[in-house]
Amino acid sequence: MATLREVTRSARSLPLSQLSRQAYATCSRRCASSQAAEAELDDLVSESGLAVPQLGDAEKGAFRPWKRAADRKLGLPSSRYQYHPPKYNRGQFHPIQSPLSSDPIARDFVPGPFNLPRLRQTYQSTIASDLMTLAYNHIPPGTPQKEQAERLREWDGSSPYHKNRSKRGPRGAPVLPVIERNITFRNIPEITEITLSSYVPKAIKDQDHLLVARTMLLALTGTTPELAKTNANVAQWGVQKGQRAITKTTIYGNAAYEFLDRCIHLVFPKIKDWKGINATTGDGSGNLAWGFTPEQMQLFPEIEVNYPMYPAKMMPGCKIFIKTTATSDRQAQLLLSSMGVPFYGRK
């Protein structure tokens, strides 16, 4: 294979007999050389692809790969998965394995990505390294580790049923909070998905309000929003549990970064007398959220370009939920602040 790569493209189309003689001559001359370094340079400088004669019409017509394939006596071995990969993965020890997702013949192959968002490129080139520098905590070697408080409570042993029983959770906390981990090169926080949700209680009496909300989210994200049901009764608004009054959608990957980029550089600067996002937002596990009023939703370029399409009195608000790989709200705010999201107040 190494000698075939050295010849030019026009020489590759020569008959196999002529090509083998030429390769044999090149190989014999190289092997017989006493000075390997000089012989390598001589081969590169002396031979040129311009000196190879071009093929004529007769030689081009004689080259018929389809005829050579038809004359082949033994074809490819027959297989059940010769043209299509298996539909089910039967384990890593099965003789038939599914191809990788990057293979075009794979069933879960997704073409792309076809673009690299500016905000994501900035994150990969600048923000990721800056986060490690800002969050670096130097611990000298030999420093004793601090003892962490117990997150789960032991049983007092007053009953024989307490033996071999699992520990209890902390008082007043139905869900155990996530332990904050130091930022290293292994766990740099990043955005995984963004969920847009719009609650339209007026849609219970008039379904056109829900249609406007779905059209708005479709224009902002490019994905078809799904409908959700209410999970509580609100007597003031006439909302009953189980009615369809919510529409939401989730975007991932490059689409999430592009939406956040539009919020930072196109929507936030246009909001008048806006302090920013309250620093108290977050669920304690690195996921942040904020909301847009109906007037603020009109500042998106997708809404401005088709503003007559959305009735002003039917324009709903929207809540933005950003899910990150951070293990605390402090790290998530540090990530979004480095991207340009303003925060005010203290946690």
From TrEMBL:
Annotated Large ribosomal subunit protein uL5 C-terminal domain residues: 248-343
Keywords: Ribonucleoprotein, Ribosomal protein
Pfam families tied to this protein: Ribosomal_L5_C
GO BP term (any one): translation
One Gene Ontology CC term in the entry: ribosome
Lineage top rank: taxon: Eukaryota
GO MF annotations, alphabetized: structural constituent of ribosome
Entry-linked PANTHER family: 60S RIBOSOMAL PROTEIN L11-RELATED
Entry similarity comment: Belongs to the universal ribosomal protein uL5 family.
Protein's name according to its UniProt entry: Ribosomal protein L5 domain-containing protein
Species, as recorded: Podospora didyma
